[in-house]
Amino acid sequence: MQDKKPAVVSIQHKAQLRARHFALLRPLAAALLLGGAGQAWGATCSVANTLIGSEITATDGPNTAGEFLYKLSPIRCSAGKVVVYDSSLGFPDAFEVGWVLPSQIESNGTLQGMRYNSRVFKNQCSTHLVVVHKNYTGTINDGAPGSANVSLTVAAYPVRTAVYLDVFKQPLYLQHGPTVPPCMPNVPFPPQVKETTGCDVPNGGDWTPLFTAAGPATPIRSQCGNPIAFNSGRKLQTEVDYAQAAGTGLSFTRSYDSQSSGVGADAGVLGNRWQHNHDFRLVFVAAQSKVYVRRGSGAVIHFVPKPGVADQWQGDADIVDTVKKLADGWEYTTADRTVERYNTDGRLLRRTFRNGQFLDYTNDATGRLTKITDYVGRTLTLGYNATGQLTSVTTPSNHVIGYGYTAGVLSSVTYPDNTSRQYRYVDRTVAGTTVPTLLTEIIDESAISYAKWDYDAKAAASLSEHAASVDRNTITYGRDATDKINSATVIDPLATTWVYTLADVLGVRRPVGETRQFDNKSRSQLFDAQGNLVNVSDFNGTLTTYQYDLTRNLPLSASVAAGTPQARTITTTWHSTLRLPASITEPGRSTTFTYDANGNL
């Protein structure tokens, strides 16, 4: 193995992994502690290239009035048989319905206008609804662990006025926000506690709502549009080309990062700035006494020897993943207890998930990944051209997804039904240096412009919009004396101006202040030395505070309306070895969780 630092290492890439942990740990204090949104698995469907209908999801709240911010996304079954956004109905992705009480969402005019010739499915708490047109008669699997395919024939689910309850356990495409309480599975209320909040569960249903009267202040966002990370000026894009049945891990997705250093000689098998979700690599740099690990997301993080523990390596204070040196290679363990085995050359051999399922990786003599095999023997086979670029992925059903390039840059993806998705780019010159392959447009499978982006003179992403300028967001940046971004001004699709103040948190720019200009109200948030969210305020000055087990970087308590007579504190204890809650205690109620050896509830 070469003793050199991989060219793709950068602080921006590490920010991706930190963002992932922040997305898990921070909402645990607002989501798990308050009954909030859990992990989402990809939803699959059976009838490719077919309109399904619409999904309406609570994405924020509840506010003090008990209302949630509902958004709507038209959905379809994609060429890869994944539930995705559908632009054909004329609604933008995540169209804002408004702040509505759950008890009133069914009578909302937007939903009423979409019910004709359709079936409506919702959860007990009315925070998630799916409107399925009668012409969609295939199956949908919501992707939650243990979920089966739901056959949506008209015979099974005829068009009717009444809604169908709890058919889907989680959103299919449009996910809950981090503060939205879910209907938790198999969590009965203690018999001595009378339930006084939330909604009733008839006949002792499996899904028990854990509502609270008022949610915490929502953490300040760092992205806008489709999506642009305005804390760093990066355009990010994730494309799903193939997804197997939920939970198997046998999927193929691509990630684009406009600030990825994977360009030119350092480009990966998908060309400049693109990476796929199985592109893992571990590099040991002896001269630095560091291990660099590239993740499937494109993030690259480093590890140093753990003091006093032989062959153990640790990351920065905000990194929970660990690395161990073995006699015949390396072992990487993630926060969710996925174990990855690498050979002495740093090539990934196997990923074993917490539930015991696994993926095996086969490489050719040159080190290129040629096959991915899941725990039941299904395979994805990868093909390359003479220059080493990925040209095909063959699925277990022998369908072929093709990848085309123009001047070495990914320009098209062709699906088994011969539809294709096209990509357009622009180069920028910054301080005399060309910054290549900045994604500016996606042409969808219907040969229609789906989305566009633009960049400023510093090559920072400055515009995001969908067809006909729908969902248009513009961003301008402020910079400090070292040319680092320290503020961002966002004008959203409603022409509202938002100003964000950014600060360095463990080497990554994070939002610490937000001001909306129509009423000049501001709010703030604060992080601790390990990158955990310590407190966040809303625009009325109400403060939500958090405390953590800093040894494991897990949230222990959340106090809503801290420092006021209305303050409520929710505490969580954690499983001794799993990063899963053992109990959640809030005023008037305590819930305990029991798991098997694999962490299944």
Features:
single chain; 601 residues; mainly beta; 3 domains; 29-stranded antiparallel sheet; seven-stranded mixed sheet; 2 helices; 46 strands; disordered N terminus
Describe this structure in words.
Residues 1-42 form the signal peptide. This is RHS repeat protein. The protein is mainly beta and 601 residues long. The chain folds into three domains: 35-215, no CATH class; 224-458, no CATH class; 476-592. Helix content is 4%, strand content 44%. Strand 27 and strand 28 (379-384) form a beta hairpin. The protein is globular and about 60 Å long.
What count of structural domains? 3
pLDDT averaged over residues: 82
How far apart lie the N and C ends? Answer: 42 Å
Poorly predicted regions are 1-40, 184-214
What coarse outline follows from CA principal-axis ratios?
globular
What integer value in Å does the Rg equal?
Answer: 24 Å
- Our estimate of the beta-strand percent is 35-45%
Q: Tell me about the biggest sheet?
A: 29 strands, antiparallel
- The level of helicity is under 10%
Number of helices: 2
Structural class category: mainly beta
Topology, number of strands? 46
Pfam families: DUF6531, RHS_repeat
Protein name: RHS repeat protein
Organism: Chitiniphilus eburneus
Keywords: Signal
